[in-house]
Design goal:
Elements: H1 2-18, H2 26-45, H3 53-56, H4 60-83, H5 87-105, H6 111-114, H7 117-158
Length: about 160
């Protein structure tokens, strides 16, 4: 699917080259950012090396914004893992989310240069904190359930 998206992205860029006015519209950057997000999320979940902006054919600002948007997708992935009682993997992805947020915070350039990266960085921070809270609650719930089972077993063996 990412290869097909890359093909469509390249066709869009060819259209921009043929008619540069199109490139000034917001939808070209939005499409590039969404494509970058998809490529990055798939790499993160597959535990592959992250493809760089040149590798996937987007500019650096769109790549960074795609990385910022990837935090939201990783949050959804963590919530799915929590639902399947896989808190160990969930913690791994929370760590990734936190590392992405820390990385994005290091880019202190004007909004016009980064295409709104500061806003996405703020959104990423919120997603990281909400996910940390959700995971903490899931871990506490899991510990409580384990202790209740231990108590039931201890009480059952006394009878």
């Amino acid at each position: 699917q990412v290869e097909k998206t890359r093909e469509l992205h390249d066709r869009m860029l060819a259209a921009v080259d043929a008619s540069p006015v199109i490139g000034y519209s917001g939808f070209v950057g939005d499409a590039a950012r969404e494509y970058a997000e998809a490529a990055l999320v798939l790499s993160l979940i597959a535990d592959d090396d992250l493809p760089g902006p040149d590798e996937i054919g987007v500019d650096h600002a769109d790549w960074l914004n795609g990385l910022g948007d990837a935090v939201g997708e990783l949050r959804r992935h963590v919530l799915d893992l929590i639902r399947h009682d896989d808190v160990e993997d969930a913690e791994k992805y929370l760590q990734m989310m936190d590392e992405i947020h820390q990385t994005l915070m290091s880019f202190d350039y004007p909004q016009a240069v980064t295409k709104g990266l500061r806003t996405r960085t703020d959104q990423a921070r919120g997603a990281v904190e909400r996910t940390r809270g959700d995971l903490t609650n899931a871990l506490r719930q899991s510990r409580l359930e384990r202790r209740m089972r231990q108590l039931e077993e201890a009480l059952g063996s006394e009878q």
